[in-house]
Write a structure and sequence with these properties.
Blueprint lengths: L23 E4 L5 E5 L2 E5 L6 E7 L7 E7 L3 E6 L3 E6 L3 E8 L2 E8 L3 E4 L4 E7 L2 E8 L1 H10 L16 H15 L6 H18 L14 H14 L6 H8 L6 H9 L3 H16 L7 H7 L5 H12 L3 H8 L1
Antiparallel strand pairs: 1-2, 2-3, 3-6, 4-5, 5-12, 6-11, 7-10, 7-12, 8-9, 8-11
């Protein structure tokens, strides 16, 4: 019976920074200069690139990246977002015209104003005067996992041209502080903050009635698969077993699962195992070897490698923070 295999094309076993999330300053024609970030180009109205106050991805490969921009000569942004993006206005106020797909709004954005751009959305924004903003980039697979764990798989991110969310503002500010202080509190603090961001998005900023799209698992089928994973993550799960739970053929199931949650079954199982292992680390009566066995990893070194890749720290370091 074939076991779940690592997907070489979409795995957390890769360079930690998700493709497209690293700010890159490049010229865009003879008179304009932009900073490209996750598919969007950010510039100023005088043709210069904005000032990047800070920009970083956490140690390890855990999802969210943060960039803080300062615009001294007006804001200009355009492009198609490669990931879900949150823009939090930090300036006192700025007159801005923005558009996401076919929705447009001209308004005065004040400190704390929230803009949410879903993955794949076309966005433009033009502002007058100075501005400073914090951009949080949330990869689709990071949010999809959090949504699936809360039984809201298939829900869509609600686009927002304006609004307020004091909790997201506070979390974003704390993430920026971690970057500014060079992750002084360690990777676990970053993990907890990014978990809080994704949970806030799931709780408040997703559509209430997810529906299975074409080529996706139905809600009931997906729930059966997730139940199967949570019931058996401590052992070697097979594709056949998960396909049977979904009542789909083995050949079609992996593709349907990926379309439903944005990652392969292998990746999902690894994430579940890591989350459970992390919860066990504070238990002083359990050795690392015992934790690895109880969470389905091949051995202790296998678990250690994955924790280092995803969280940016060894299990012993994480345990010291948790105890």
């Amino acid at each position: 019976m074939p076991r779940l295999r690592q997907d070489p094309h979409n795995s957390t076993d890769r360079v930690p920074l998700a493709a497209g999330t690293s700010p890159e300053r490049i010229p865009d024609g003879p008179d304009l200069s932009f900073t490209r970030h996750s598919g969007l180009a950010f510039g100023q109205n005088d043709g210069s690139a904005p000032h990047i106050v800070l920009a970083a991805h956490a140690p390890g490969a855990h999802g969210i990246s943060v960039v803080r921009y300062r615009f001294d000569n007006g804001l200009h942004a355009c492009g198609t977002s490669l990931h879900h993006m949150i823009y939090l206005t930090l300036a006192h106020e700025e007159k801005i015209a923005c558009r996401i797909d076919d929705r447009r709004l001209d308004h005065v954005a004040r400190r704390g104003n929230l803009t949410i751009i879903p993955e794949g959305a076309i966005c433009t924004a033009d502002g007058v005067g100075s501005d400073e903003g914090l951009v949080l980039v949330v990869p689709k697979e990071t949010l999809s996992f959090a949504a699936a764990e809360r039984s809201t798989s298939g829900a869509s991110v609600i686009e927002r041209l304006e609004g307020e969310d004091s909790i997201l503002l506070r979390l974003g500010t704390l993430l920026a502080q971690q970057v500014a202080e060079n992750f002084v509190d360690g990777p676990l603090a970053w993990y907890e903050l990014t978990e809080a961001v994704t949970q806030r998005l799931v709780d408040v900023h997703l559509t209430a009635t997810p529906a299975a799209g074409r080529g996706m698992l139905s809600r009931d089928a997906f729930a059966r698969v997730i139940d199967c994973i949570h019931a058996g993550f401590e052992r070697q799960l097979s594709v056949d077993e998960l396909a049977d739970a979904a009542q789909r053929s083995r050949s079609h199931f992996p593709r349907l699962f990926r379309r439903s949650v944005g990652m392969s079954p292998y990746q999902y199982v690894i994430k579940v195992r890591l989350k459970r292992a992390l919860a066990m680390l504070p238990n002083r009566s359990l050795s690392m070897a015992e934790i690895s066995v109880r969470t389905g990893f091949a051995d202790q070194s296998h678990m250690c490698r994955w924790m280092q890749r995803v969280y940016g720290a060894a299990p012993t370091q994480l345990a010291a923070r948790l105890r």
